[in-house]
Structure formats: structure tokens, C-alpha cells
């Protein structure tokens, strides 16, 4: 069976992300990658801890933690929008690739550049509308009932996620324009690996 791939194993790409960008851009890209990984890991761990604590409180003390639902809501938003940039960086987004796979290398390269540029534009378009949405929430002055935080603060992750993802796809398009090979992201080479083991 063939599945989506990279130029390194999944475990290596998770632990040792190396940007395909030169110089200072590569340093920034690597730093953002590590920051995203920390945010995602911390978010998942905090959500698990919060949910377990709430279940224990409900069954042991007979009462839920009143702010538990709001904390999980904040963490889900954070994980979702930090995760889109992380997925783009590691070439992990779902791809409908039947036509793409049937093309020769040159055709795949052109199509990947078009896909990356268009996806980047869509991300920047969503960034614009997410900022408008946050400004609208800010003007209404609504707050979270249990925690008392202004609601707009929990949605700040949305424009940040769209910005990072848009930049990542733009850099992917540039990487494909300046490289001989086809790249799914700045550090992930297009291709397939055979995961079947011989018996």
C-alpha cells in the first residue's frame, strides 16, 4: 500500500523539522515550527487534564468544575488554528491527488505552484475576515460567563493560524519555483513511500 510521504520518515519529520529555506528565513521557519509543536502538545495535554479533572470532580464531589467547558473551548480553538500551520509545514493536509499523480513531474510542479499560491490567497482572505470578526466581537464587549474574559481574546488564534498557514503556502510556492524538485511544503519533498513489509 502506498501512502503520502516525505523525504524522511514520519518520526524524523516530527522530531527534527528542518526548514528548506535559506538563512534567516530558515531560522524563523524552524522557530515557528517548534513553537507550533509546543502549543499543540501543551494544548492537548491541558485539554486532557481539564477533562479528567472535571470528570473526577463530577463523580467524586458531585459537581462539575464550572469553567471547565470554557477552558476546553479555548483550547480547541487554539489547537485547531495552531494545527493548520503545523499541518501545512509538514505537508500533512488532505490532498485529492488522482489528477495530480497522473501528471508528469513538470505538470505536478506547475500544479503544486498553482495550488500553493491559491491556498495562500484563501488563507489571507480568511485572515482578513477573521480580523473583521474579532473587531466586531470586540465592539460588542461580550465576555465569557464563567471566566469573565472578553470573548474576542479567545479567537485571536484564528488570524494567527491563517497568517502562518498563508505564509507557509506562499513559501511552498516560492520553494517550488526555485527548486528542481516538487515540494509539498518548504521541507517536505513530494513522493510516495512503500509501507508494505515483505514477509
UniProtKB/TrEMBL annotation:
Pfam families assigned to the protein according to its UniProt record, in alphabetical order: DctQ (PF04290)
Residues in Tripartite ATP-independent periplasmic transporters DctQ component domain copies: 49-177
Record bears the keyword Magnesium: no
Cellular component aspect of the GO annotation: plasma membrane
Biological processes annotated in GO: C4-dicarboxylate transport
GO molecular function list: transmembrane transporter activity
UniProt-annotated location(s): Cell inner membrane
Stored InterPro entries: DctQ, TRAP_DctQ
Coiled coil feature spans: none
Bilayer-spanning residue ranges: 37-59, 71-89, 110-135, 147-171
Taxonomic superkingdom: Bacteria
Primary localization: membrane
Record flagged with keyword Protein biosynthesis: no
Topology with respect to the bilayer: Multi-pass membrane protein
Keywords on record: Cell inner membrane, Cell membrane, Membrane, Transmembrane, Transmembrane helix, Transport
Oligomeric and partner information: The complex comprises the extracytoplasmic solute receptor protein and the two transmembrane proteins.
Functional description taken from the UniProt entry: Part of the tripartite ATP-independent periplasmic (TRAP) transport system.
Family, per entry: Belongs to the TRAP transporter small permease family.
Name of this protein: TRAP transporter small permease protein
Species of the source: Halomonas aestuarii
Amino acid at each position: 500500500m502506498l501512502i503520502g510521504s516525505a523525504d524522511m520518515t514520519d518520526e524524523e519529520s516530527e522530531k527534527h523539522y528542518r526548514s528548506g529555506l535559506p538563512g534567516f528565513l530558515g531560522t524563523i521557519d524552524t522557530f515557528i515550527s517548534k513553537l507550533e509543536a509546543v502549543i499543540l502538545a501543551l494544548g492537548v495535554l491541558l485539554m486532557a487534564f481539564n477533562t479528567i479533572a472535571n470528570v473526577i470532580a463530577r463523580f467524586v464531589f458531585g459537581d462539575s468544575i464550572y469553567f471547565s467547558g470554557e477552558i476546553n473551548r479555548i483550547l480547541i480553538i487554539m489547537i485547531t488554528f495552531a494545527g493548520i500551520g503545523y499541518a501545512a509545514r509538514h505537508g500533512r493536509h488532505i490532498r485529492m491527488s488522482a489528477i495530480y499523480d497522473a501528471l508528469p513531474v513538470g505538470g505536478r510542479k506547475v500544479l503544486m505552484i498553482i495550488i500553493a499560491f491559491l491556498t495562500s490567497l484563501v488563507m489571507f482572505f480568511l485572515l482578513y475576515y477573521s480580523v473583521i470578526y474579532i473587531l466586531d466581537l470586540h465592539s460588542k464587549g461580550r465576555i465569557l460567563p464563567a471566566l469573565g474574559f472578553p470573548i474576542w481574546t479567545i479567537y485571536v488564534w484564528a488570524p494567527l493560524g491563517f497568517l502562518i498557514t498563508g505564509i507557509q503556502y506562499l513559501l511552498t510556492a516560492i520553494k517550488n519555483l526555485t527548486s528542481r524538485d516538487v515540494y509539498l511544503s518548504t521541507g517536505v519533498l513530494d513522493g510516495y513511500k512503500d509501507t508494505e513489509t515483505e514477509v
